[in-house]
Amino acid sequence: MKNHSKKRGLLASVGALATAAALVLGGSVAASAAPTILPTETHGNLHITKLSTPNGGGVTSNGTQVVTLPTGAEPIQNVTFAAKRVISYYPTAGDPINDLVTVDLSTNAGWAAAAALQYDAVGDTWSTEPGAVAVTVNFGAISNDITDANGEAGFNLPIGLYHVEETVTPAGVTPAAPFLVTIPLTNPVTLNDWMYDVYVYPKNAQTSFTKSVNDENAYVAGDDVVWTLNADIPRKNNATSGPADWADITAFTISDTLDANLEFPAAADVVVNIVDATGANLGTQPALTTDYTLSAANPLVMTFNATGLAKLNAVVAANPGAQVKMTITTEVKDSVPVGTAMTIKNGGLTTSLQYTFDNGTPEDPQHPNEPETRFRSFTFEKVAHGTPATKLQNAVFGLYETEALAAAGAAGTALIESAPSTATGVVTFNDVRVSDFQNNEVQTAGAKANPLDPTCTLRNEDFRVYWLSELVAPTGYELLAKPLPVIVTTAGAVVQVAVDGAGYAQYNADCSPVTVANPLSQVQNVPANAGFVLPLTGGTGTVLLTVLGIGILAVVLVVARRRRGAEELAE
Fold first, then answer.
1. Which of 173, 205, 237 is the last residue of a domain?
2. For 501-547, how does the pLDDT look when each residue is reduced to its tens digit (9 = 90+)?
3. Is residue 505 part of a domain?
4. Domain check: are 329 and 347 in the same one?
């Protein structure tokens, strides 16, 4: 796409300097037609309008005011520009006094001196032709201004040649290269007067970099939490080779320092795609090793190589708004101390995007907001029904995703099983995702539509209800007849809630869950057979029955013998 010389590739200007120099040196007709810069004209105005890169690449600036901005060019606020006047220069290896060249634009010699300068924006170095002799430039005072809501900054400057650069750029905005501009400029339309109001429109690529989390399928430690990073592929106009041309991206890296509570993912758990704004794949998709590399340890660093960069440049040239999508599937560690919360996020500026253009320096890293997921460990007591409540040992509970699974209590279907209750009746569940926080959102009333209850605005499937089932009862006690529906709150409470027929939490008028036990501090068991004594079998009871049976049999035999004797006498 580009085959230009170093001079063309590195000259940072908006066409103003070249235009003015051509008018002075290109022919006597243009020069003689232009009025002289009068001594009374000591100042001019530089108007800067900072814009995002337009869809079509924009148009070449000539210093005049643009009435209708290109489609997609939006103002960018809070960009600080610094303008410093080039006073003079001399060969770096020369004499600062005898070899000094003055840049005075009120004279033809001063314009010629300005036209001889070359500026390398990448190295921030200056030289002159012929032979590209390195020179040292002397500058005047620096003027600063910040763009307003319209993207505009303004300077009232003495007549001269100015080096203008961005010194402060908002996050998500790619700085434009420094440029050179003269005050004044020959009017490019009439060619016979001077413009003392010069308008320039430096373009910036506004690059969005976001990070999201999906923990819908994460219930307990060992489950997967998926993190998705979406980074716009930045674009920057290559002013030296035409307004429709783009500067190539020569480096593109995403770095993510994973939370200590996450296992470092295998390479197969990291997927990199080039997508459009809807998430649909664009072009030939990048492949590990062929197009990018991944670090083997924290932080996780994805770096495009030359082959991958070629794919990025090809896609973004044809598809403005293209993105790099990086999906990281991570496993939650079993690491939360009992009774505490685990908030998994990358605190601080630990996730970054950095890229470089072929006509600029590496851009400062951009950092997205850090989403999070929340887990808790919790306990309750297993006690006997009655007063005082006797603490019961060796009860085992399971935590289930649905009521049906909890009621069946089949082996291996629990999300997690507790250890047997301790001698003091304590049952512990470690590392359970909280019910009231999902996909980096607090699940509160007013957040989402609830299709089952039009009076509430909380979507049931986002407010997780767990089902607590007793799998092994303490000796001499009955199992719980039915599983208990509970929620685990961010604040640390384990709350038994009322549910509807579908197993979703029921809500009060204010859309808060209807609670049954808040907090669920104890779970009671009743004694076997509800405490009633069953008839005894074996031992004393059996002997008594035998004795009674023999006694009855003896009475029957005596009665039968007497009846037979009586019958014999009667005969």
1. 205
2. 777 777 776 667 778 876 788 888 777 665 465 666 555 555 555 55
3. yes
4. yes
Residues 342, 477 within the same domain: no
Sheet of strand 300-304: strand arrangement: 292-294, 300-304, 249-256, 351-357
pLDDT band at 13 (very low <50, low <70, confident <90, very high): very low
Q: Residue 356 in contact with residue 249, Cβ under 8 Å?
A: yes
Phi–psi pair at 553, nearest 5 degrees: -65, -40
Domain total for the chain?
A: 4
Co-location of 26 and 84 in the same domain:
yes
Q: Are 473 and 479 in contact (CB under 8 A)?
A: yes
| Least confident stretch, 327-341, 365-379, 407-421 | 327-341
Q: Does 345 share its domain with 320?
A: yes
pLDDT in tens, 53-71: 665 555 567 899 988 877 7
Which residue in the block uniquely carries the two structure tokens 């089902």?
467
Q: Do 234 and 246 touch, CB atoms closer than 8 A? A: no
Say what the pLDDT of residue 459 is.
46
Same domain, 240 and 286: yes
Q: Which two tokens stand for residue 173?
A: 């905005």
Is residue 342 located within the same domain as residue 463? no
Parallel, antiparallel or unpaired: strands 51-52 and 203-206: parallel
